Amino acid sequence: MSPRPKVEHLRKPQIIAAAADVLYERGLFDTRIGDIAERAGTSSPTILYYFESKDRLLEEAVDHTDRDFYERLTEGQARREGAVEKLVHLIEETSLGPGGLSDWTLWMEMWVRARRDPAVRDTYFRLDRRQRKLIADIVREGQATGQFDGKVDAHDFALALSGLMDGLGVQVTLGQPDVTAERMVERCLALASAALGCELRPSAAAVRRGARR
Amino acid sequence: MNARERILAAAVGQIASEGIDGVRIARIAMEARVSPALVHYHFATRDALLAEALEYSYGHAGQARISAGDTLPQSSHAARLQSMIEACLPTSESLRQDWVLWVELWLRAARNPELRPVAEELYARLHAWFAKEIAAGVAEREFARCDPDEVADSALALLDGYGIRTLIGDPSIPLERARRAVSRALAQALGLTGEQLHDTRAA
After folding, report:
1. What is the chain A residue with the closest CA to B151?
2. What is the CATH number of the domain that holds B97?
3. Angle made by CA atoms B100, B103, B108, in degrees to the nearest 5
4. What is the pLDDT of residues A158-172, one digit of tens each?
5. Are B168 and A194 within 8 A, CB to CB?
6. By a Cβ cutoff of 8 Å, what residues of chain B touch chain A?
7. Set of chain B residues whose Cβ sits within 8 Å of the Cβ of A116
8. What's the domain range around B119?
């Protein structure tokens, strides 16, 4: 067996980024290890050295894409004041943000693979729970300041909003007529407003973005 | 069952257990007691096979659901809505099977625009089903005034979002939790309490 490549710490992120791109473009089944090798500027044996299977590649690619999205999200959250702004931002970033919507295709790959692969299933649970926790934390913050109804169970709400975003996200991704990203934001804000007893409106930035599309 | 139906029935089972990408035409042929050539004759591509299998599976279970709605013993629109929620979550083995194909369709339709009309048609049918029931309930003042289309949209999206989590088997979201949550959200939109909707479910 050849000696371990010395530039391992440089190669792996490069490969994962290339894998994420190719997987997004072609889907898991139609992705060949060779396609990823070509995109990453390396060889197939190198790819296989790091990832025993396409499923492991999928997990890492999803993790990587999600991490990018999550970093952007948390950065944006940190710049927002108060629970209302944060919740609106989360909904808008997920529905309208770059990488927010396109990630649904990778999520769909995961949903399909999760039924058969326990490791992919665990990755899915981990990412889903992290998002739900983020939402629940915002709700509790809002409850503490009296902006949101204190009787609402933060976890139940987080699950409902996540479910709604997934359902609408699928329809937007599939290009369902009448279900645009802007409508998705509207529906999510409506659910949140009704559930939390507080009127949530789109941010000025999102309205401007919407006008430009 | 004629040959085409046997092929579709075999395909549905295989797609549900192996995924559309894991399907082997030879195995479908064997199970359907036809030649692989006949399978290829009916279904030129995997996408065509998935689309038709979904239609078949949905068509049997789905259409049966929808038309059974007319013969359901429940008298209230709330009770009928609860049955409809039940029919749209993976609450039985055959519904789980439908669901698996549904999710495979999402994935392939996301990349292949040719499959999108199939998805569109199925959504449109489901949407009409819910919107009609909601509108009837509003007309008879059982439900508060609302936009039946908007409420139907949200209901379907919630059903998809909760459904996928129970299908994958999130231990924190057993089926009962999914049922209650969708019922509660729908009830809220219709001016009912969650219990008024959920309690109408037949034991």
Report:
1. A187
2. 1.10.357.10
3. 125
4. 999 999 999 999 999
5. no
6. 19, 21, 100, 103-104, 106-111, 113, 116, 119-120, 123, 150, 153-154, 156-162, 164-165, 167-170, 172-173, 181, 185, 188-189
7. 19
8. 69-198
Answer for the pair B189, B71: CB distance below 8 angstroms, yes or no: no
Q: A1-51 architecture in CATH?
A: Orthogonal Bundle (1.10)
- Its ipTM equals 0.88
* Positions of CATH 1.10.10.60 in chain A: 1-51
Residues 6+ away with beta carbon under 8 Å from A44: A33, A34, A37
Q: Do B191 and B124 touch, CB atoms closer than 8 A?
A: no
pLDDT digits (tens, 9 = 90+) for B163-191: 999 999 999 999 999 999 999 999 989 99
Q: Which CATH superfamily is domain A59-212 in?
A: Tetracycline Repressor, domain 2 (1.10.357.10)
pLDDT (tens digit per residue) in A149-203: 999 999 999 999 999 999 999 999 898 888 888 999 999 999 999 999 999 999 9
**Is residue B62 situated within a structural domain?**
no
Q: Do A27 and B107 touch (CB under 8 A)?
A: yes
Number of residues that make up chain B = 203
**What is d(CA A188, CA A175) in angstroms, rounded to the nearest whole number?**
18
What is the count of structural domains for chain B?
A: 1
Residues of A with a Cβ under 8 Å from any B Cβ are 26-29, 104-105, 108-109, 111-112, 114-116, 121, 124-125, 128-129, 156, 159-160, 162-168, 170-171, 173-179, 187, 190-191, 194-195
